[in-house]
Amino acid sequence: MRRAAPIAATAAAVALLAGCGGSSQREAARPHATSTAPSPGQTVPAGTVAADFALRDQHGRLVRLSDNRSGITLVTFLYTHCVDVCPLIATELNSVLRGLGARRSDARVLAVSVDPRFDTAAAVDRFVRERHLLSQFHYLRGTAAQLKPIWQAYNILVVPKNPDVMAHTASITLIDGKGRARLVYSATATTREILPDARRLLRN
Fold first, then answer.
1. CA–CA distance, 48 with 3 (Å, rounded to integer)
2. How far is residue 189's CA from residue 107's CA, in Å, rounded to a whole number?
3. What is the pLDDT, as a whole number, of residue 189?
4. What is the 3-state secondary structure (H, E, C) of the chain?
5. Rounded average pLDDT over 120-134
6. For residues 168 and 114, is the Cβ–Cβ distance under 8 A?
7. Which position among 143, 146, 161, 172 has the lowest Cβ density within 10 Å, counted as fewest Cβ atoms?
8. How confident is residue 40, by pLDDT bands cut at 50, 70 and 90?
9. How many of the other CB atoms lie within 10 Å of CB of 79?
10. Looking at the predicted structure, is the pLDDT value of residue 129 above 80?
11. Mean pLDDT of 189-202
């Protein structure tokens, strides 16, 4: 088994550096691409192991990436007061879970915070409730010291612009039951693009 490596870099994926707006802004900051984004679902080199991590979710439960050995995991990076890209990612991934039907129990979304200061328990709870996120959707919080190594492992660049805007690399990684990263999607990936891959991995 290969050592865990920065996933997005390993996949040569070019994600969006998303300048998400905050609640005090009337207009959301427009996301801008660092360069031309690849098509959603770029294949990761065979055997690439996703870096393991453990954080607490919106219910205070400790969630570990490596605990899901019988299904699939979608890992992404969000923050609660973003008003454009992050809510769209959350909505699409929640729709992927819904689309799996009876196999939903074998899948989960792990959304890792990129804003340890303002992603409080109350803010995360509100984000989850307002978007009717399913129980398989885990919004993971932590301290800066806990989160930064995970950002690094998944090649996530986080650049605080001001209290309302956390520019960050936006990507989605599909991980199989053996902990291998299989596909990396851009922030603009839709349910229609992700769901067939999720179904295929669950069948295998």
1. 7
2. 18
3. 93
4. CCCECCHHHHCCCCCEEEECCCCCCCCCCCCEECCCCCCCCEECCCCCECCCCEEECCCCCEEEHHHCCCCEEEEEEECCCCCCHHHHHHHHHHHHHHHCHHHHHHEEEEEEECCCCCCCHHHHHHHHHHCCCCCCEEEEECCHHHHHHHHHHCCCCEEEEECCEEEEEEEEEEECCCCEEEEEEECCCCHHHHHHHHHHHHHC
5. 97
6. yes
7. 143
8. low
9. 27
10. yes
11. 95
Q: How far apart are alpha carbons 170 and 26 in whole angstroms?
A: 22
Residue 145: HSE in the Cβ half-sphere, 13 Å Cα cutoff:
0
The proportion of the chain whose per-residue pLDDT surpasses 90, expressed as a percent, equals 66
